[in-house]
């Protein structure tokens, strides 16, 4: 081997040895973890609050008798709608649990419910629904007015004279 070939070969090995990360994984390399973003899922069912204090658990039972443990800051508000029917959107975590990102109360005490923020209008008290629409609710109890701005559920808005208008705070 000639001396010039030897120096060329030595220079090539030196360049390869001087890289910052000689075994850097590339795209599609099995050593490179693939990070996935959780996809949002929708579940629906009846809320059940179990336990108390530090042992408080909020569960949703769907129509197929599957029970989901609800977690996250939005799930805490669901404790106020124990026995209510809801649609919840969120992601599953590894605990296992369902991290609630948003929810809508659809029924309370077996009756259809509105879910929104209470507002005072020229026509009376109204509910600003989650979709942004406004629904005037005649017959709301007088003590409801002290909750203007609060999120609440309302039943009896559909004109059923057998059952009075009822409401409850979602907090």
Could you walk me through the main structural features you see in this protein, from its secondary elements to its overall organization?
By secondary structure, the protein is mainly β. It has two domains: 41-108, OB fold (Dihydrolipoamide Acetyltransferase, E2P) (Beta Barrel), CATH 2.40.50.430; 111-169. It has two helices and ten strands. The chain has helices spanning 3-17, 73-77, and strands at residues 41-50, 57-61, 67-71, 85-93, 97-108, 111-121, 124-129, 134-136, 151-155, 166-169. 20% of the residues are buried. The mean pLDDT is 84.
List the helices and strands and how they pair.
Elements lengths: L2 H15 L23 E10 L6 E5 L5 E5 L1 H5 L7 E9 L3 E12 L2 E11 L2 E6 L4 E3 L14 E5 L10 E4 L2
Parallel strand pairs: 3-5
Antiparallel strand pairs: 1-2, 1-4, 2-3, 4-5, 5-6, 6-7, 6-9, 7-8, 9-10
């Amino acid at each position: 081997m000639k001396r010039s070939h030897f120096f060329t070969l030595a220079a090539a090995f030196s360049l390869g040895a001087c890289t910052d990360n000689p075994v850097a994984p590339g795209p599609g390399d099995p050593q490179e973890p693939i990070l996935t973003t959780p996809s949002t899922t929708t579940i629906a069912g009846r809320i059940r609050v179990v336990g108390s204090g530090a042992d408080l658990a909020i569960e949703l039972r769907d129509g197929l008798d599957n029970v989901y443990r609800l977690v996250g800051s939005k799930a805490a508000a669901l404790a106020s709608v124990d026995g209510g029917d809801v649609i919840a959107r969120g992601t599953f975590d590894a605990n296992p649990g369902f991290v609630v990102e948003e929810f809508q109360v659809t029924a309370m005490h077996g009756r259809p419910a509105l879910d929104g923020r209470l507002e005072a209008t020229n026509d009376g008290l109204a509910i600003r629904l989650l979709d942004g629409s406004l629904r005037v609710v005649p017959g709301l109890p007088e003590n409801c007015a002290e909750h203007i701005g609060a999120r609440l559920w309302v039943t009896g808005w559909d004109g059923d004279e057998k059952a009075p208008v009822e409401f409850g705070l979602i907090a």
